[in-house]
């Protein structure tokens, strides 16, 4: 027999306080009926003896201390799951908003998930191809990895996220092919089989994308929806949208709902799932707002002291479990307030994740897309998912040499700003030319351009030929002899 509690003790923004509660549990879902007609959901976020603090998912409009009846459900937040979620669009609570009806299934999962047993975690191997050279070539995304994108207000992170969703695919045998001079010219034919159509899966591996947007405006949400549909990728994408005018409390639960769906597809159904979460800054600001409403003592920049553990709870839900066919890979996207990479959100994110991709405002102002600054960007797991057997034997050496050469470009530009470009040595002038070509041809690519890893590496070699051979000190001699003089690698 369930007990219904009449009235509330207090209301403070999205939080309500109910006293006299018996047998309640932390994270338990409650149903609140307002004026006997409107039903709202909430969850218990704090318990103090018989006093419960409840976070209302919908707003607290029309609620008063006397017109609300509260009933405990006896279970945490759960969502219904089946493979039918593929191609569907839901709100931040996992409720369908695409007009196609409810998901019918007996499977319901707690959105808080369960921690992965460290003993059963497998080391991430194999890469996920995005079709973007600056990512695939220099900060390669590995299955089971968490690789955030650090952006800023006004930078094209939404376009980049949509392009990754459209183009992302599992690495296939087409990537690891003979790279001799006779086969070097066949990159175009290999690229015609590239991802986006989800038709080149190796060993019948299944791939899906879970996309969760938090605090986005209506026009941004419409941009994502239209892009996914027009690209043909929508059938393999599960979309969760929390709009800017949706309740703050819903924003906090959205990434957990998305990751619960991803874990179901990966570990129950064997999919390799790429999860894209944008914008984690909106999530952190929602945490700050709720924390302030609870009267908690703030930490750095007003964020709660448990921001690190909350972010870790989300990010650590990526990985590969031994005995399970699938994997969960994360790309969280966050906007750095004031482009400050030392801000608490990117700072704490960097501690938890395995690298970062940094978008640069100066590159964006030059019209380069995507404006990825490769020098502060890195993928700590990249070395274990590239090279012979995964991409191509020269991948690591080419990446190392491109990083080194681009770093010297910065030195040459700094020197030129002091003494003038005409006074530079011939080698420094070559580095200046290399830097401009690298930014325009390697980093820069069209928003609809989908490059294979072979094309990416061949572009890298084409650029490296702009430098003297004796400057390429990060490449093995055998690889240098094989590729540097091969004019057919373009």
Automatic annotation (TrEMBL):
Residues 168-199 are annotated as: Disordered. GO terms for molecular function: ATP binding; proton-transporting ATP synthase activity, rotational mechanism; proton-transporting ATPase activity, rotational mechanism. It comes from the Bacteria. Residues 131-379 form the ATPase F1/V1/A1 complex alpha/beta subunit nucleotide-binding domain. The keyword Signal does not apply. Residues 181-192 have a biased composition (Low complexity). Pfam families: ATP-synt_ab (PF00006), ATP-synt_ab_N (PF02874), ATP-synt_VA_C (PF22919). Residues 384-484 form the ATP synthase A/B type C-terminal domain. Residues 9-64 form the ATPase F1/V1/A1 complex alpha/beta subunit N-terminal domain. Keywords: ATP synthesis, Hydrogen ion transport, Ion transport, Transport. Gene3D superfamilies: 3.40.50.12240. InterPro entries: ATP-synt_VA_C, ATPase_a/bsu_AS, ATPase_F1/V1/A1_a/bsu_N, ATPase_F1/V1/A1_a/bsu_nucl-bd, P-loop_NTPase, V-ATPase_su_B/beta. GO terms for biological process: proton motive force-driven plasma membrane ATP synthesis. SUPFAM superfamilies: P-loop containing nucleoside triphosphate hydrolases. Belongs to the ATPase alpha/beta chains family. PANTHER family: V-TYPE PROTON ATPASE SUBUNIT B (PTHR43389:SF4). Produces ATP from ADP in the presence of a proton gradient across the membrane. The V-type beta chain is a regulatory subunit. This is V-type ATP synthase beta chain. It comes from Catenibacillus scindens.
